[in-house]
Amino acid sequence: MHISEGSLPLTHAAAWTCASAPFLAHSISKLKTLRESRYLLAASAGYLFTLTALKLPSVAGSSSHPTGVALGTVLAGPAAMPALSLIVLLFQALLTAHGGLTTLGANVFSLGVAGPWATWLLWRLAARCGLGDQPAIILATALGSLATYACTSLQLALAHPDPSGGVTAAFLKFAAVFSVTQLPVATLEAAFTVVVLRMVVNAGGVRIAGLEAWAQL
Amino acid sequence: MGTTMTKRVLPVIAAGLALGVSAWSLASAEGRIDADERVSAILPPPTRPAVWEPSAGFQAFSFGGQAALGVAVFGLACARLRRRAR
User: Fold this and answer.
1) Which of A93, A118, A209, B26 has the fewest CB atoms nearer than 10 Å to its CB?
2) Which residues 6+ apart lie within 8 Å of B72 measured at CB?
């Protein structure tokens, strides 16, 4: 989901930066109020750092990394994720040449806003529909990961519409390329996230809204 | 005290090293194309060059370092959570 330097026109890059800015500002102020949960935030940041560094092999000779935003979304809420995503994306843009500085706003929007909010909404919706905790988180994580890539596909499609089919055709083209690789990776990430989430909740004896049954207090 | 510290920190260091080496190995593996690169290949050429383009070796090393750092932060945070829960 990392849009590399120069892949977006400057106007698009600026627009996505403006779109991310309020979420980022809210996230930073939210982190200040979440001082009590700083270890949960640190665990979420560590998980995000680790998972986005793993280029997992996938089908058809491709590889991709999990998004790693689901753990933080469940533990600290989606509002906390843009700031954590910014740290990871800045690290990667500067040290691994993955992503870019002008495209940072667009990448923060897909990884820090679209992915976490999709995960959170799907998790709450699935829980409300009576799905158990575990299946709800698996479903939300997998679809949230795919939502991140769908957002990137949309960003690229808006910047580079197909000459004949327009934005829709371009979106489908980019989404098709991503989905081949990302479907297995998202499924694996979903299963792994549940295991790690259970570990954190049990280790810390923390109460997470919606996961009360998991905490062994 | 020292033993407790060792018990807490050593597994974190070991896991960090293991995942760091795994991430470095996965990033430096050849023969598989990253999904982002696949998409970049069908895009028009970038209008601006990257501010800094590190070598492939450095990139792989950075991915390894990132994973190791992530595991260290995660592990230490979990250790603190466990301690606080007690």
Assistant:
1) A209
2) A46, B12, B13, B16
How many structural domains comprise chain A?
A: 1
Rounded Cα distance between A108 and A114, Å, is: 9
Q: How many CB atoms lie within 10 A of CB A181?
A: 27
Helices marked H in B1-86: 2-28, 35-41, 56-85
Interface test with A, best of B21, B24, B38 (most A CBs within 10 A): B38
Residues in chain B closer than 8 A to A92 (CB atoms)? 62, 66
- pTM comes to 0.90
DSSP state of A37: G
Give domain status of residue A175, yes or no.
yes
- What the block records as the tokens of B19 is 């995942």
Distance separating alpha carbons of residues A138 and A166, to the nearest angstrom: 34
A114 residue type, one letter: A
Yes or no, beta carbons of B50 and A5 under 8 Å apart: yes
Q: How many CB atoms lie within 10 A of CB B34?
A: 18
- Which of A46-60, B31-45, B52-66 is predicted with the least confidence, judged by mean pLDDT? B31-45
For the segment A119-174, what is each residue's pLDDT rounded down to a tens digit?
Answer: 999 999 998 888 888 899 999 999 999 999 999 999 999 999 999 989 999 999 99
Query: What ipTM was predicted for this assembly?
Result: 0.87
Q: How many domains does chain B have?
A: 1
